[in-house]
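Q: Here's a chain of 259 amino acids. Please give me its 3D structure as tokens.
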Amino acid sequence: MVSVRPKKSLGQHFLRDAGIARRIVDSLDAEGSATVLEVGPGTGVLTRYLLERNFREYMVIEIDAESVAYLGTHFPGLKIIHEDFLRFDLDRIGDGKIAVIGNFPYNISSQILFRVLEHRSRVNEVCGMLQKEVAERICAGPGSRTYGILSVLLQAYYRTELLFTVSNEVFIPPPKVQSAVIRLTRNEVAVLGCDEKLFFRVVKSCFNQRRKTLRNSVKAAFQLKGYENPVLDLRPEQLAVNQFVDLTNWISLNMKVSE
């Protein structure tokens, strides 16, 4: 077991099992990454094993002042960014690709991944532990009841893998839900072949009314010249990423000038 000083912050549950911690760290490939960035290290349960891997450049980002002080004391020489990852501009970290790793707080894990998407040109890998339900949603395919906004947006730019699940008994304090570790690896898509800003808007608009057909969702969100497209008779969970790209291009061509 790993001895930690518990801290309740931002929905964080701290891992106390050394075997799981090492397994998470070993799951990070970091091939081609100039920098490895650990998000929310807390008391350094993953940090101690990440330091053993001798990455080209390794640093942590932590918002909590108490944790920053703890890390500075227990890991001399560790590069610590005392800021909020959700507000931090990753372009401040030199050049080259970035691999992100962490035991992500449950209540902001989706926000962390949306932040990764904003920096998809820099972040080429993510390895993290989060709520199992969210992990399953990220990795779900078309037709699944858990397939949604995160599934489509992340799979547009990353290969997604649910690596293993983690019992709630290995945390302090034990969460009420199960956890899982995922790995995202940047795919070969440089550009989607559509207006990417509009693509994000289309996906979010469609899944905001996931029980309705796309026709209803699109009519509510966009003023178009017409709605004669057979794909609009489907529901959002039936469309693969490439079909959302096609839909985005169709909407772009059919928008009224006011849009």
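Q: Can you summarize the key feature?
A: The beta strands are 14-15, 35-39, 58-61, 79-81, 98-103, 123-131, 158-166, 171-172, 179-186.
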